[in-house]
Amino acid sequence: MNLAYIGITVLWLFAYGYLIIASIDFGAGFFSYYSMLTRKEHVVNRIIERYLSPVWEVTNVFLIFFIVGFIGFFPDTAYYYGTALLIPGSIALILLTIRGSFYAFANYGVRKNKIYMFLYGMTGLFIPASLSTGLTISEGGFITKEAGTVLFHPDRLFGSLYSWSVVFLAIVSILYISASFLTYYADRAHDFPARQQLRTYALAWSMPTILASLLVFWGLSMHNPTHFARALDYAWMFAASLVCFLGSLYLIWKQKKFGIAFLLVMFQFAFAFFGYGISHLPYLLYPYIHIRDALTHTSMGWALVAAFIAGLFLLVPAIVLLLRLFLFNAEYVKGGKEGK
Amino acid sequence: MDSVIWSRLLTTETLAFHIIFATIGVGVPVFISIAEGLGLLKKDPHYLLMARRWTRGFVITVAVGVVTGTCIGVMLSLLWPQFMQLAGNVISLPLFMETFAFFFEAIFLGIYLYTWDRFKKPIYHWLTSIPIIIGSTFSAVFITMVNSFMNTPAGFTIDKPSGKFTSIDPIAAMFNPATPTKVAHVVSSAYLASGFLLASIAAYFILRGRNHEYFKKALKLTMIAGFALSLLTILAGDFSGKFLAKYQPAKLAAMEWHFETKKEAPLIVGGILDKDTHEVKYSFKIPYGLSILGLGSPEGKITGLQDIPKDQWPPLFIHYTFDMKVTIGFYLAAIATLFLLLWWWKRGNEWHPWLMRGILLAGPLSFVAIELGWITAEVGRQPWIIQGIMRVQHAATSSNQVGLIFVLFTILYCLLAVICTTVLYRLFKGKGPEKELIERKWESDVEVVNS
Ligand code: HDD
Ligand code: HEM
Ligand code: HEM
Fold first, then answer.
1. What distance in Å separates the CA atoms of residue A317 and residue B59, rounded to the nearest whole number?
2. Cβ separation of A82 and B70 shorter than 8 Å?
3. Which among A230, B135, B139, B381 could bridge B104 via Cys, Cβ 3.0 to 4.6 Å?
4. CA-CA distance, B140 to A41, in Å (whole number)?
5. A228 in any annotated domain
6. Does any domain span residue A58?
7. Which 8-state DSSP code applies to residue B264?
């Protein structure tokens, strides 16, 4: 495999990691706010807090990792995307800032505050919406290069059906991923009322997720037919995604094996996300940045790969420890051990 | 105003805000770890509680550090796309490694926060503080390497016609000439400022008449550390001066209003500059001072601004920011020394209210010093974004909407500053350590009355 493809694979893996754990986080924020409004917070909030409190910072690092790595491997993207994404990027940053800090203020501070909870809950829906525009823009048509300067056309972005379908997909997927994970977590905690409640959320968001994916396909076929045609070459991946979806839906419906159900959800998104990614190549920004032209110098590229491997030796044990202490520790999940 | 000015303002504002929380993020874990370690070693609940209370405040500030850091990380590409495109080829390795350091820290911080009473042996909990220190200190080391590269770029050659970097050596870029002194000074000053911040909180309560042993132990601990760290920081600062004399003479000359290249150069403190004649009035001169700072000997020959093309002169106001910082540096060393002397001297009263006031002031001052130090270093690099290679105005985004973004972020930072302070205030208000020791049954009421 050549360097450019190793690089993009690593980065895409991290983007996928972010997709899953950030979705859990974003959705959880929304559900806790929603359940506060509907006065059901006593049912689900404890579950959500126990999972989220130790891991929120880790979530953020996934995003940073992706961005820094992307610019490291493909410095030219900094130029194009940097120039084009000033406004959407800044808006995403402001939302991320509000969310991260208000999470800490609400949870590590003294008391719950409705406004903090609101900001924390709602930003979780808007962040993915604004981040997903990055993917939309990469399809081309929203950035043009004229007389040596890069121009961004927000009017086209706001007027595009494809762009809105991606936003819609981002929001509903988040709620679906999050609800199916939290159902599993509540099940492990033997918190049955919470499980029931979260299971309803999962079921409620399953159909919109599929609908939104179809809409995105349709939008893509009109917006970037080349990419769509390539996606059809990988149709089996999208079919596998659908099968996983049906499997997870069945299990959640039948209230069986919530762990497997969540794994299937992860596979559903993995297939779709990687299918999307592979068919997107060789362009990082259609039609301006071709993956091979954008690659950094080989010495730097290999240095990054080496750093990445060394880093994994450090991180994987640490993450395993984190998961064993918090996610797979039955006593912690049930609420036995703590201490602040 | 054009996009260059706005981009500079926004970068400055974000960095100046981030650096406060970053400094706390680098330094405070060290003190938390020392306190918990001492508590376990001496079986002293006061130190254990100190570690818990410091941690509780720390997580709030870390959160702000993380989000503002995320902002800079992304903004570097949004505001300086040409810079990132060029420098990204050479310097992305330490940036990338920094994210690993964060990762490491974030994971163990999560563990540390939620496992106070979970391990059978408390020492295991203390052990999880070590990776936090490693993670945060290394993130400072890596990011400082990036900044060093901007000052003394290394590890590549330039292809003349295209202006592109070729034959890249990422390791040489990381260990560029500025790295050793910068890293040493940045890390030691972060520890120093955090120590004085914690000391200043303890001094505040002692001034308010709270005389529980807890506060005294906190102050003694932070003052011992503060003393050692202030000497280290001054030493590292002195090395930074020597580095500048060799590699960035324009910056040093601007910092010192040194116009004529000469030997036996005096160090000018304060004063007012006549812009046309370059005469300095009302200043305090330390004979041979600059030669010693720059080259370690009174004979040293220091390059003056006259030997540097005028369009490459940095703004001359950094003379004041530098002088103020050095003054603060000596103030910090002096006050810590005074405290230790009075403590050591049996008849001295190290809890004298005036000394407490001095220490109370030292906390905020040490953060002012950090800001001033960065302003000196960054403005002193002007007009370059990468010294000698790329000028700031060629690096900025061409977008004309940066002004709007600047306004939005200004509002955001103001809000964050206010809310963060209120949250911290509420967290500790009316919940003194005295009360908490009793609640935790680590100390009975009787003891408190007696102490
Ligand atoms: C508590 C903070 C603090 C204190 C007390 C000092 N410094 Fe400092 N100084 C910094 C915090 C700092 C800093 C924030 O960490 C800087 C900014 C950029 C850098 O590399 O470190 C810095 C930069 C900096 C530079 C510029 C380095 C460069 O641009 O490469 C010099 C020459 C000095 N310092 C010298 C000193 C001296 C002689 C001090 C003696 C008292 C001193 N500093 C105390
Ligand atoms: C450690 C890594 C750092 C990097 C990579 C970095 C990068 C930059 C960049 C890209 C600019 C804009 C170009 C310019 O105006 O020269 C800049 C300017 C500036 N930075 Fe840094 N910076 C770093 C650290 C800091 C810190 C921690 C501060 C703390 C306050 C700081 C203060 C400033 C200031 C004041 C300016 C504006 C200079 C001016 O007014 O022209 N920098 N820096
Ligand atoms: C020398 C000056 C700086 C120091 C000492 C420093 C240190 C820190 C620290 C301690 C944190 C908190 C991380 C945590 O607790 O997890 C942080 C966050 C962060 N900083 Fe800075 N920083 C500096 C300047 C910069 C600059 C110039 C950049 C931009 C490239 C930057 C990028 C970041 C990012 C992306 C984060 C958030 C990481 C996360 O998501 O956990 N920092 N920094």
1. 23
2. no
3. B135
4. 40
5. no
6. yes
7. S
Full DSSP string of B93-115:
HHHHHHHHHHHHHHHHHHHHHT-
> What's the gap in Å between the CA of A268 and the closest CA on chain B?
27
Q: How far is the CA of B367 from the centre of ligand 3 (A)?
A: 16
CA distance A88 to chain B (A): 10
Domain that holds residue A80: 3-217+297-333
* pLDDT of the residue at A338: 47
Least confident segment among A35-39, B109-113, B354-358:
A35-39
Q: Summarize pLDDT for A210-241 with one digit per residue, the tens.
A: 888 888 778 777 777 777 777 778 878 888 88
Residue A277 has pLDDT above 90, yes or no: no
Give the nearest partner residue to A57 out of B106, B117, B409, using CB atoms: B106
pLDDT mean over B378-384: 88
Q: What is the pLDDT of residue A299?
A: 80
Contacts of residue B376, Cβ cutoff 8 Å, sequence gap at least 6:
B255, B318, B321, B322, B325
Nearest CB to B170 within list A80, A94, A303: A303
Mean pLDDT for A311-315 is 83
CB B49 within 8 A of CB B433: yes
* Closest listed residue to residue A184, CA positions, set A257, A89, A266: A257
Cα-based distances in Å from A93 to A61, A107, A128, B81, B409: 14, 21, 11, 17, 9
Please list every residue in chain A whose beta carbon sits closer than 8 Å to the beta carbon of residue B162: none
Ligand closest to B75 (CA) is 3
Mean pLDDT, residues A289-301: 77
Q: What is the DSSP string of A253-298?
A: HHT--HHHHHHHHHHHHHHHHHHHHHHHTTEEETTTEEHHHH---H
Q: Is B82 in contact with A79 (Cβ distance < 8 A)?
A: yes
CB contact B402 to A (< 8 Å) = yes
Q: Is B133 in the pocket of ligand 1 (CB under 6 A)?
A: no
The pLDDT tens digits for A171-218 are 888 888 888 888 888 787 777 777 787 788 888 888 888 888 888 778
- Report how far residue A151's alpha carbon sits from residue A142's, in angstroms, rounded to the nearest whole number: 8
Q: Is B389 on the interface with A (CB under 8 A)?
A: no
**Of A82-91, B330-339, B364-373, which gets the smallest average pLDDT?**
A82-91
Average pLDDT over residues B172-195: 92
Measure B156 CA to nearest chain A CA, in Å. Answer: 11
**Residues of chain A with pLDDT > 70: what percent?**
90
Q: Is residue A250 part of a domain?
A: no
What CA–CA distance (Å, rounded) separates A239 from A231? 12
Over 50: is that where the pLDDT of B451 sits?
A: no
| For A298, nearest residue in chain B (alpha carbons) | B168
Between residues A309 and A36, which one has the greater pLDDT? A309
B168 in contact with A at a CB cutoff of 8 Å?
A: yes
> Whose structure tokens read 């105005």?
B393
Beta bridge partners of A143: A152
**Total structural domains within chain A:** 1
Predicted local confidence at residue A340, as pLDDT: 38
Ligand nearest to the CA of B231: 1
Find the DSSP H helices in chain A: 3-37, 41-73, 75-84, 86-108, 114-138, 154-159, 161-188, 192-223, 225-233, 235-254, 258-280, 291-294, 298-326, 330-334
- Kindly state whether B97 is in contact with chain A, defined as any CB-CB distance less than 8 angstroms: yes
| B106 touching chain A per CB within 8 A | yes
At residue A197, the 3 state secondary structure works out as helix
Is the residue at A338 inside a domain?
Answer: no
Quote the pLDDT of residue A108. Answer: 67
Is pLDDT of A332 > 70?
no
